[in-house]
Amino acid sequence: MLYKKKWTLKHFGKIKEDEMSKKICISPEISQILKNRDIITEKDAEIFMNPSLDYLRDPFLLKDMQKAVDRIREAIDKNERIFIYGDYDVDGVSSTSILFLYFKSIGYDVNYYIPNRLEEGYGISIEALEKINQMGCDLLISVDCGITSYPEVEFAKTLGMDVIITDHHECQSDIPDAIAVINPKQPDCDYPFDSLCGCGVAFKLIQALTPPEEFKKTMYNYLEIVTLATICDMVPLKDENRIIVKNGLNMMKNGRNIGLQELIKVCGVDNQKIGSSHIGYSVGPRINASGRLGYSYLGVELFTTEDRKKAKDIALDLEEKNNERQLIESKMYSEAEAIINNDKSYENDKVLVIAKEGWQHGIIGIVASKLTEKYYKPTILLTIEEGMATGSARSIKGFSIFDTLVECKDLMTKFGGHEQAAGLSMDSKNIEELRQRVNKIADYNLTQEDMIENIKVEYELEEQQVTLDLVEELHKLEPFGLSNPTPRFIMRDLVLANIGFVGASKQHLKITLQKDFVYEAIGFNMAYLADEFTRGDKVDVLFQLGENNYNNNRKVQLLLKDMRIAHPKSAIKDFTSIKLFSKIVPQDVNNLYKINYNLENNRIKDEKFGQNEISNNFNIEDMSNEDIFQYFEGDTLVICNTLNGFFRAYSDLSLIDDEFDVNFGKITKNTHKIKLIFSPYLDKLDLNIYNNIILYDFLYNKEEYSYLLDNIKLNANFVKYYDDKNKLYLNNIMENIIPNRNEFITIYKYCITNKHVELTLNKIKSTLGIMPLKLFVILSVFKEFNLLDYQINETENTLIIDFTKSSISKFNLDESLILQNIEQLRNKYLESY
C-alpha cells in the first residue's frame, strides 16, 4: 500500500496551552503554528503578526538605483518622452500601473506599452521597439521584464532610446548594457533581499524617486497594487514582501484604489474579510485572464482610472473575460489529459512535455500548473503554430526548470523565468529532442522519492478544535504564501458519508465527512479522486480551514488538499486488505507458526499477559490513548496482526520524516531504521536489534508475549498501542480462518474444472463465493498436497492458480500440516483470551 503523496507533521501530539499564547492572547493552536515557523519568542511573534512599514529597506542598496533615478530626473528636466514597458500578467500590469500612477502624481505625462500575449509573446521585442519608436520615445523603463533582452537593448540604442531595466527574473550570462539594470538577482547586487516581485522592484524605484518623508504618505497610493502583485507572483512572503502584503491587505478593507475596489466587488469578496487566498484565487486570475486573452491594457486602465463608473465597467469586462478563460482552460486541460492517457510512454517520463496545435497561448501556464499539481511532475506545455512552438513550464520542489532549460538552450529561440516557472519558444521540430533531454536531466537529478509530493502539515486537529473561531484567528498569520504557507491540518478516521461534484464541468469534489460531528469539504479540481473511494470508507483528510457563508449561515468548510484510505468499507474489495489476508496463512510446511514456545521461564506474571509491569528491565507501556510518535525513532519494530492494526500503523508511520520498511510476514534486509511487519513469525525475527517494539494489535497467544520478552534487548521499550476493542478484529480473523469441508470441495471442483485461473483480487468473493482469508488457506493446503500452485501478481492485483493434475487419488485434509498448524493457532488464541 503506497500513498500518492507524503504527509509530514511538523508537530506531533496534542496542542497544549503555553506561555506565549497566554502573554499575547492567542490560542494554543495559533501559538503552535508560530513555533512551527521557528517564531518562539513573544517579540518575534508580535513582529511577525504586525510587521511595520518602517522596516522597508533603503532602495539605494539596489545596484544601479542611483543611476536610474538620475536618468529619470534628467528626462523630466529635459521634458523627454518616457515609455513604461510592462508584461501582460498580474505582476507586469501592476508594475506598469504603479509607475504610471507615480508619474501622474508628479504631473508628468508618460505612455505605457504592454505586448499582446497572443501576438507578441513575453518580454521586449524588436517589433514592439519599432512601434514605440514611431510614437516617439527617449527613455524606456521596463518593468517585470528585460533582464534577458540583451539584443533588444542594443537595438533600442540604435533607435536613440535609453533603457532602464527593472526586473526580478533569473539572470542569464549576458546582462543587457542598459543605462541602469535594477534586479536584486544580479550576481553583483548586494541588496539584502532578492525575492521581490517585479512590482516590488518598481515600488522600490518609486521609493527612491520620492523624498523619504513624502514617501511615508504617498506609498499608500501604490501599496494595494503591490500587494496584489506580490501575492499573485508567488514570491516568498517574508522580509519586505511580508511587510508590503500584511499592510496592503489591511488597506484593502477601506481601499484607495477605485479600480481594485470594484474588482473585489465583482469577485463577491467581502473586503472587510479579504485575505491572501481571495487575492490569489479570485482577484488576480481576473487580471491575468484579460492578459491571457490579449487585453492586458484593461488591467492598467482599471488601476489608473479615477472614474468609478469606468472602473465598474472594466471590472465587469474582466469578469466576462475570466469566464471565457475558464471555458478555454477546461477544454485545453481535457485535451492534455487525453494526450497523456493515450500515450503510455508518459508514465515513465519524469517531465511531461506535451504539445498540440491550436492551444491558446495565454492559457497554457494555468494548465501546466494544474497538470504539475495533479501528477507531481515538472510539465512543459506547448502550442504549435506555423512551425513554432510556444509554451510555459512549471516544476516541482527541488528541480529548477530554468536551469534545465539553460542546458537545452540550443533548442530554443527564447526562454526565461524562475526555478519553478518559465516560458519558452522553439522550432516545433525540436519538441521531441527537448522531451528526451529534459527527461535525461530529470532522471539524473530526481529520485523516485523526489517524485512524491511531501505536504507539510501543522498538526493533527481534534474535532473540538475545528471551529469558526480558529478560522478567524488564522487571519492573524496572514499573508500566506511561500515561506509562510497557508496552514494545513489533518483529521483521521472520518467516515466518507457522501461524494458529489460541483462546477460547470463537475471538476470539483464535494464530500461529507462524519465522526462525532459532520463536516463539509470541497476539493477544487479534485474530482478525479472520487474513483478511489466508496461511500462508507474511513478516510484520512488533509485540508485548509475555510468558511462557507451561504444565506448568512456561517459554518466551517474543509478545503480539501488530499485524501487517503484509513480503512476500506469492504475488505473483500480492497486490494491491500486481500494481500494482507494472504500473508496470515502459512505458505508451505517449512514455514509454519511456531506455537509451542518454552514457557518454563515465563516472565508473564498475569493471565492478562502484560497488563501489569513485567520487569524493571523493560519499559512496558500501554499507549492506546497516548502519543505514539515519541517511539518512532532509532531502531523500531512495529507489529500488527489485523487489518485495522496495519492501517493504523501505516497511517501513523507515514506522518514522520523517516522512511520505513513494510514487510508482510517476510524477513528482508533493509536500511531503514523502522520496520512495519504484518502477522510475523516471531521466531524468525532478530528482536535483539530493536530499541522499541510496538504492538498495534494483540499477539496471537500468551506464548508469543513470552517469546518477545525473552528475546528483546534489555532496556528496550515494549509498547502496547491497542485497547480491548482491538481484540474484536483478531476475533474476526480466528473465527473465519478455518474453512469447512464443503468450502474445500467447492474450490477443488472450481480449480479442477478451470485448470488455469486468473482472477482479480477484489472479485474473489463474488466469483467463488468464499472469503479471501479462507480461500488462501484452502489454496495453501492444496499446494501442500501438490494439487496446484498459486501466486499473487502484485502489479496487476490478480490471483493466478494453476492446477497441476487432471485427476488425483484421494487425499485426507486431516493430514494437512498447514491446517493442523492453523487449528493449533486458533486453539492457542482461544486459550489465551
Give an overview in words:
There is one protein chain. By secondary structure, the chain is of the alpha/beta class. Helix content is 37%, strand content 19%. It contains 27 helices and 27 strands. The protein has a six-stranded parallel sheet with strand order 19-24-23-20-22-21. Strands 3-2-4-5-6 form a five-stranded parallel sheet, with helices on both faces. Helix 5 (90-105) packs across helix 14 (297-304), helix 14 (297-304) packs antiparallel against helix 15 and helix 15 (308-341) packs across helix 16 (364-375). It is elongated. It starts with 5 loop residues before the first strand and ends with a helix. Mean pLDDT is 89; it is low at 601-620 and 666-670.
The first-to-last residue Cα distance is 31 Å
Individual helix count: 27
> Which residues sit in consecutive blocks of at least 5 with pLDDT less than 50?
601-620, 666-670
Assess the beta-strand content as a share of residues.
15-25%
- The percentage helix is 25-40%
Helix/sheet category: alpha/beta
Q: Using only CA atoms, what is the Rg?
A: 32 Å
Strand order of the largest sheet: 19-24-23-20-22-21
Task: Give the tally of β-strands.
Answer: 27
Shape: elongated
User: How would you characterize the largest beta sheet?
Assistant: 6 strands, parallel
Look at the structure and give the mean pLDDT.
89
